[in-house]
Fold this sequence. Notes:
single chain; 7-stranded mixed beta sheet; 8 helices; 20% strand
Amino acid sequence: MGSELKYNALNDQLVEYMNASHSYSRDPLLQELRSETARFGDDAGMQISEVQGSLLTILTRLLGVRSALEIGTFTGHSSICIARGLPQDGKLICLDLSVEWTDVAQDYWDQAGLRDKLELRIGDAIESLASFNDADRFDLVHIDAEKTLYDQFFEGVLPHVRQNGVIIFDNMLWGGRVVEDDPDERTRAIMNLNAKLAADPRVETVLLPIGDGIQICRKR
Length: 220
């Protein structure tokens, strides 16, 4: 007997049901942040989904993360969710290029009472990664920035991830375009990285259809 593909095709009603069925579905701070982020127009689409946010918090707690890194913070939704999962002495370093977007993030970090757990570094993420030393080690890394640079981010951060540490990539289904026959540059970059990660002996991976697709990699 051949194996059947097992999945549920999502629609708006099911997605709304999922969004209402997790811990932070009615979190007033995150709802306010999502509303404020909407003023950035099309760029607001870069914000992670509510379900992704809850998953980040749960994973951070489950893994006992004490040291985390985020590449691409935007207005702060994902950083708040990760920081909420950290212990009192945990630390999340956030790398981003935009002062405008991260000014919003910092305001909400203060409102969430998480300022002591978060450190923002504005500048080129690849240069920031190159500045880390051998003592810089992370239990969890979240990557949600320029897609054509994902592979460089991966190679730059992997030496600083502890064994059994986790790297999470967002947008790895890229709106479904990863199965197109004539991909553009960003789509091709994501397709190539998905294929590379699946065959890379340094990591163990799973690609999940949450939000726009998240790739979870465990460093062996």
